[in-house]
Model the fold of this input.
Amino acid sequence: MATLLNPTPDATMLSRALARWSLTRPTLIAETATSLVYRVERTGQPPAVLKLLKPGSGEDERNGGSLLVWYAGNGAAAIYGLARDAVLMELADGETLGDVARAGRDTEATEILCDTVEKLHARRDAAPPADLTPLRQRFEALFRVGAGAWPRQARDLVGRATGIAYNLFDRPMDAIPLHGDIHHDNIVSGARGWVAIDPKGLVGDPAYDYANSFLNPEEGDDFVISAPRVARHSHAIAARTGIARRHLLAWASVHAALSAAWDIEDGNPVTQQISILPLLLTAYDTA
Done:
């Protein structure tokens, strides 16, 4: 009874969302550092996903919800409702693109990834959300982490990547709405085919949306961290998009360093990023 009289903040947030959109039978399917994700039922309609944003989750999650609305289901999960602390969205509960790549079909996965990003980057009549985060701001951690914080063997690599990042931002670039976190396990199959989920809501160079895919899928390091895969992946994306291969590799290199910077600040290992970074930089130098 005490629990009913004194509901937790999470329970209160869930109750409000269920009432707001007339949802029933919530089943927790995932919890992340920023959100609680439920499968929910809707009367007379297909099941959906309810994503509740934890207090202090930051603007990334809220920007991502606004961007999903703007995508209008083209390449991304459709949105059925949006509030400041909650997103009601299409349920895509099939395999992820990471499953495809880890099953030995990495070339097929790259094609699907390019198909998906092409849809996300398509021109739309509606104005994009006004609160998207500039890509330069996204890189603050890379520019903030001092050389002394890095493993000694990584300092020259990260210094090189940081210099490339400064060069990228010092030059004029196209600026479009970006998903900001395209990786294989953020592209999921559902009733409408492959859709992207969990955007960060950035604005900047379209080439950046391919950068994270060079480090992914997770649990795929046996084939991801290899010069042939870097070459194959960059050639395939360049051929599909018309983006210069060297430009793609520049963003892949600086994103690997940025990802490592985030882990340095969180006290996590940076083994994967530091293992692939020399491969990316070598490919960049010879592209």
